[in-house]
Amino acid sequence: MRIQRVPSKWAKTEVILLNRTLTPYIPDTRKYDSAALSEMLGLHETVYIKPDRGTYGSGVMRAERRSLNLTPSGMEKSVEHMEKEESRPASIMYILRYGTKAQAYRSIEELHQAIYERTKGRLYLIQKGISLLNHKRRPFDLRVLVQKNPGGRWETTGLLGRVAAPQKIVTNYHNGGRVLTAESLLGEHMNPNERLATISHLKNLGVDTGRQLETAFPGMKEIGLDVAIDDHHDLWILEVNTLPSLIAFKMFEDKSIYRKIRRYATAYGRAGFGKTGLSSSRKA
What we know:
Elements: H1 9-16, E1 29-31, H2 34-43, E2 46-51, E3 61-67, H3 79-87, E4 92-98, E5 101-105, H4 108-119, E6 124-128, E7 134-135, E8 138-148, E9 154-163, E10 178-181, H5 182-187, H6 192-216, E11 222-229, E12 235-241, H7 255-267
Antiparallel strand pairs: 1-6, 2-3, 2-6, 3-4, 4-5, 7-8, 8-9, 8-11, 9-10, 11-12
């Protein structure tokens, strides 16, 4: 049976949002247009704009709303000066980041025009930015690999951390990100008990997401969740990939993890992992 791939991030998000237990894990996410950009940046200081179809973090942009401090540095503020400053309309600027570049704009209209020139009318999503935990001052997120086991049940088989490359806004390995164990990254921010509880939570979240997506896409056999952990240690599903990369799990010392992943992939017929079954060549 052909393995079902779903390239559209929006289609997957809509299905996940139908499950009330999973809804709290999805950041505010909408289809991109100028109205959504204005409203989202009114609600959130940082948003991500990402293509509805695409992988490896390609095409992802980050927009930020920043208040300008017009007072010269070092100037002492009198009470009278501060009262006047409070009554003065706030001066706002917007920053657009992509790759390692950053550009500033004075209005939401200018920002939208710059984004539109890069999206060229294609469907993009806009998502609330999550303040990620850091490793050596670089943000990281987690990849949760979930597969159908030979018994036909969803099982979380892999978990790893992805640390962003210097000045990059995405953590993907293909964009220069560094792969580390989830245990080591979480251990920098949590005590042993909280770390174990979080890992268990991540595994359960992966299985629950697989089950929910299967209600709409019955031919799905594997998914990769990109999960953010914020400063409060809350979990957020940033997106779900239905053609997840497996090779990164081969890097760890514990080779039994990759052997199990490979055995499951062979069982359900992923291309390159056995002689049976077909896999779509489209990235999803």
